[in-house]
Amino acid sequence: QKEDIEVTLLPAGHCPGSVMFLFEGGNGTVLYTGDFRLAKGEAARMELLHSGTRVKDIQSVYLDTTFCDPKFYHIPSREECLNGILELVRSWTSLTRYHVVWLNCKAAYGYEYLFINLSEELGIKVHVNKLDMFRNMPEILYHVTTDRCTQIHACRHPRDDECFRGNRLPCGMTCQNGTPLHIISIKPSTMWFGERMK
């Protein structure tokens, strides 16, 4: 049996280009979320999720359940996370120019919000290995750099855990102008912290 359906892609807020799928057909409407991160009120602003002044009737939701676990009972908002990281990075990098931060990011994408906001607030570009993965995201290019002489790093290495044995960053930096670096690592990961909380 064949049926025409309408498929609408809605922004998922997870990483650049991530979407949720809204399927509408004669037998009803289904929303498939996949990984998503929407702040309170964001769904209310999605015009394509509405019919007139109300949300469309959705018969089924296929919800990503990565964090459907009691240990993730409270996931702080993106703003709360940013403010906490910003406060830590500001206090550390203001000590001396040899105090640097390594953002230990698990994935290649999805941290653009963090990089842009840290760079804008602190006036420090974020070191990444390559710029080519950001070529189609011009809004971030001003905030990232391949110059290793910066105080915020999000460079990656295949064996990240081995980096700090010699007090060096994944890019190999250990000092600037002969002065040893003082490095802290920040792991921006809901999963990592959720698995370690009591």
TrEMBL record:
Positions of the DNA repair metallo-beta-lactamase domain: 139-193
Keyword set, alphabetical order: DNA damage, DNA recombination, DNA repair, Endonuclease, Exonuclease, Hydrolase, Nuclease, Nucleus
Gene Ontology cellular component terms for the protein in this record: nucleus
Gene Ontology biological-process entries: DNA recombination; double-strand break repair via nonhomologous end joining; interstrand cross-link repair; telomere maintenance
Entry keyword annotation includes tRNA processing: no
Pfam family, one: DRMBL
InterPro entries, sorted: DRMBL, RibonucZ/Hydroxyglut_hydro
Sample GO molecular function, one term: damaged DNA binding
Domain of life: Eukaryota
Location of the protein in the cell: Nucleus
PANTHER family listed in its UniProt record: DNA CROSS-LINK REPAIR PROTEIN PSO2/SNM1-RELATED, PROTEIN ARTEMIS
Similarity comment: Belongs to the DNA repair metallo-beta-lactamase (DRMBL) family.
Protein name, as recorded: Protein artemis
Gene from which the chain derives: Dclre1c
